UniProtKB/TrEMBL annotation:
Keywords attached to this entry: FAD, Flavoprotein, Oxidoreductase
GO MF term set: FAD binding; oxidoreductase activity
Biased composition (Polar residues): 1-10
Domain of life (superkingdom): Bacteria
Region (Disordered), start-end ranges: 1-20
Domain (FAD-binding PCMH-type): residue spans on this chain: 55-228
Similarity remark: Belongs to the oxygen-dependent FAD-linked oxidoreductase family.
Keyword Nucleotidyltransferase appears in the UniProt entry: no
Organism of this sequence: Agromyces rhizosphaerae
Cofactors (names): FAD
Protein name: Oxidoreductase
Keyword Oxidoreductase applies: yes
Record-linked Gene3D superfamilies: 3.30.465.10, 3.40.462.20, Uridine Diphospho-n-acetylenolpyruvylglucosamine Reductase, domain 2
Length: 479
């Protein structure tokens, strides 16, 4: 009788794959001008850590490329080794990516791709894929120019912009994504490409508003700059006991202001921490901040209804645009916050009450703040197309009048209680919730239709053409 010959056991096959992967990653490390880190390396925890300290990322390996050739090597090696690829610059919103496990994924951290060149005559910036907004402001400012940056100085340009990009100037200029002129990337087949409205209009459309990470690794982009150097900006502050009064007055103001004004209203529960200034530490306060494009007289007239409420602090006045990335009091460095955001169609008195009540009382709430931000204007999809000076991307705008965002600290017992508190807050606002969500403010997974609505099928077609094997692993799936 012949004895059947058995093949390698599952354990043996796993060991062979593990050995092959280790050898392949070692070969990749030898080809890189940058660095590669794997579990067990002394720098492993630092290499895998995103800006969001709540995002516990455990990829198969991390590559820090220093040039486009490194990115090409990383993509080619990942394909050969059967790994997926996740690009990341700073990782401000890394939670949805980290939640995917990443054990079969090569994380490509692009922070060293930080070149900036300014063409003042064309009012165009070419910005490396790992650059942060603070660096762009420093490069553009001496030319009397500014970009449509967000409210945080250390947010990555690419993730923010290709996710949409809501700046202080968005109500008059629309999404930052729709002022991108060209995108340089390495597609999942390992090919370096430069795409614009002429060379590949479908891919160019899909990149602007999808976040970009599902279609390749963006190594640079070109965007418009604007000749704005000074605005009327600042903040006002009141004790939390006046929350309903201030939120209502702010809401009333948003119904009359021109698109050259952008404001937000927030209710905070600040912890008692020595790092905070005395006027904030251990207090609950209401803050209205904003930017007005106009003369000091025009700005003062616009905020007069809020000044009539006699804030205990008022910093509104002529402000260099270089200071706007610190106006919103976003964290100055990495934090462990857990948050999320939704869009609102309207803000009646009942919605204001739901937002304030949803934050909860100091000492019992797991949330640190609730924010309502006025959008509308040129952020509306139909208006966004009119200010883009060219075809818009998959996200033409935000079909809403307000954004609600909230966040809390996930300690001592992890993010689950914070998530539960966010669910309660957003459930209370459900009657006024918009039909879609905004990618950059979504810190949990969503169906593609929640971000792109009727355009989700077209986006999926582009993704299937560019990445038929599903190599790319974006933070939010695009189909």
């Amino acid at each position: 009788m012949n004895t059947p010959v058995s093949g390698p056991s599952t354990t043996d096959r796993d060991a062979q794959r593990s050995t092959a992967r280790a050898e392949g990653l070692a070969a990749l490390a030898n080809r890189l001008a940058g660095t590669l880190s794997v579990p067990g390396d002394p720098d492993w925890d630092a290499a895998r850590q995103a800006w969001s300290l709540s995002a516990d990322q455990h990829p198969a390996a991390v590559v820090h490329p220093v040039d486009v050739a490194d990115v090409v090597h990383a993509v080619s090696a990942a394909r050969e080794l059967g790994l997926r690829i996740a690009p990341q610059s700073t990782g401000h919103n890394a939670g949805p990516l980290a939640a995917q496990g990443l054990g079969d994924t090569l994380l490509v951290r692009t922070s060293a791709l930080d070149e900036i060149s300014i063409d003042p005559a064309r009012r165009v910036a070419r910005i490396g894929g790992g650059t942060t907004w603070e660096s762009v402001a420093a490069a553009a400012g001496p030319h009397g120019l500014m970009a449509l940056a967000g409210s945080s100085h250390d947010v990555g340009v690419v993730g923010y912009t290709l996710g949409g990009g809501v700046s202080w100037f968005a109500r008059s200029h629309g999404l930052a994504a729709n002022h991108v002129l060209a995108i340089e990337l390495v597609t999942p087949d390992g090919v370096q490409r430069r795409v614009d409205a002429d060379t590949d209009p479908d891919l160019f459309w899909a990149l602007r508003g999808s976040g970009g990470g599902g279609l390749g690794i963006v190594t640079a982009l070109e965007c418009r700059l604007f000749p704005i150097t000074e605005v009327f900006a600042g903040m006002m502050l009141w004790p939390a006991e006046r929350a309903h009064e201030v939120f209502t007055a702010w809401r009333d103001l948003t119904t009359t202001v021109p698109t050259t004004a952008s404001t937000a209203c927030r209710l905070f529960h600040f912890p008692d921490m020595p790092e905070l200034p005395p006027f904030l530490a251990g207090r609950s306060v209401v803050v209205v901040d904003g930017v007005v494009q106009g003369t000091p007289e025009e700005g003062a007239a616009l905020v007069a209804p809020l000044r009539a409420l006699e804030p205990e602090m008022d910093t509104f006045g002529p402000t260099p645009v270089s200071e706007l990335m610190h106006l919103h009091m976003d964290p100055p460095g990495p934090t462990p916050g857990t948050g999320d955001g939704i869009l609102l169609d309207e803000l009646p008195d009942a919605a204001i009450a739901a937002a304030i009540g949803g934050l909860g009382v100091r000492g019992a709430s797991r949330l640190m703040f609730v924010e309502l931000r006025h959008v509308g204007g040129a952020l509306r999809p139909d208006e966004g197309a009119s200010v883009a000076d060219g075809p818009t991307g998959v996200l033409a705008g935000l079909d809403a009048e307000y954004v609600c965002f909230s966040s809390g600290m996930p300690f001592p017992d992890g993010p689950a209680p914070v998530r539960a508190a966010l669910d309660v807050l957003f459930a209370g606002l459900a009657p006024w919730r918009g039909g879609l969500d905004y990618l950059n403010f979504a810190e949990t997974g969503r169906d593609p239709e929640r971000f792109w609505g009727a355009d989700a099928p077209r986006l999926r077609v582009v993704r299937e053409r560019v990445d038929p094997d599903g190599v790319m692993r974006p933070a939010h799936a695009i189909g």
